[in-house]
């Protein structure tokens, strides 16, 4: 860890991984530090199976495939990627470089830093029903990693958010029966169209309901009972009851913040010279919180980092006829 990098990127979501590619492409010695066991950020965590239609050049690609393509591109420049590590502090040194420290007090050394850590780290809110622990992993899940697993199965989705609707509609195509259980009387953060699609589907929606009890033996869950006494046969339960988010400590790191994000200009510079920002972590007028915006911002952040490291560096690369890659 004592090795010093030119650029260290906090966060291995789509933005951070793409920033690592671009930084490597500009011949900067690059490291990515990611909290989750695998890079991919929100796309891998929330919607690996969902089709994404608004990334240029991909007329419909699943989250998983997009992350795979981004990783493939990042591998071209072979950056150092460290996972299951959470950065807790950043200290600027007198020589303009930085020491980043993780939750165990281990240090990373870098001449410049790119923050691509979104709003922070996330873990799923667990299902809180007596005895649910024994069915975790096998039958209770917090994301759809493999849609085929639900083929011909009876599935209950527990959620009051748009994510629950997304999942239910995806499951409907392969599962035998889909129930969507919402503890409120409406869905949160939805577009009108989402609810229309849900209502037009075969998904059985249960509003103002909660899971009261799970049934089965030590080995297998077979059904659940809702608050109103209705018993539903289930093979799997998918839960999206929100997240346990640990917000990034940007303000504690000395960064200006605006509603938890870091305000930047078009150069993606933060208020601390040498720290740059891209993706969902960044905010500026008319900012779109989308994958493609993160890619563009990553390029600008890397270009600014390159000029921080060497004021004579090119402000941007106009053409990528790079002969060193064998693709
Ligand atoms: C349900 C849903 C559907 C969406 N659909 C679309 C869509 O169709 N099209 C589209 O373009 N966008 C979509 N988005 C938005 C898109 O997912 C985000 O804009 C994009 O993922 C942001 O990428 P990012 O890399 O900037 O941040 P993130 O994906 O949030 O990645 C940040 C990474 O940083 C890590 N991290 C955080 N703090 C630390 C730390 N201290 N130390 C180490 N690691 C840390 C996190 O673990 C995470 O992996 C959707 C979002 C959601 C929630």
Structure description:
The chain starts with a strand and ends in an 18-residue tail after the last helix. It folds into two domains: 4-122 and 244-309, FAD/NAD(P)-binding domain (3-Layer(bba) Sandwich); 126-241, FAD/NAD(P)-binding domain. The protein has 327 residues and is an alpha/beta fold. It has helices at residues 14-25, 41-46, 63-75, 162-172, 192-199, 291-309; strands spanning 4-10, 30-33, 51-52, 61-62, 80-82, 87-92, 98-102, 107-115, 120-124, 140-141, 154-159, 177-181, 204-206, 211-216, 221-226, 231-233, 236-240, 243-247, 262-263, 275-277, 282-283. The strands form six sheets. Strands 1, 2, 5, 6, 7, 8 and 20 form a seven-stranded mixed beta sheet that branches. The structure holds flavin-adenine dinucleotide.
Strand content: 25-35%
| Overall domain count | 2
Q: Output the number of helix runs.
A: 6
- The CATH topology of the largest domain, please? FAD/NAD(P)-binding domain
C-alpha Rg, in Å? Answer: 22 Å
Reading the helices and strands in chain order gives EHEHEEHEEEEEEEHEHEEEEEEEEEH
Runs in which pLDDT lies below 50 for 5 or more consecutive residues are: none
Class by alpha and beta content? alpha/beta
CATH class of the largest domain: Alpha Beta
Largest sheet: 7 strands, mixed
Helix content: 10-25%
Bound molecules: flavin-adenine dinucleotide
Mean pLDDT: 94
Tally of DSSP β-strands? 21
Overall 3D form: elongated
First-last Cα distance: 31 Å
Supply the CATH architecture of the largest domain.
3-Layer(bba) Sandwich
What is the CATH homology-level superfamily of the largest domain?
FAD/NAD(P)-binding domain
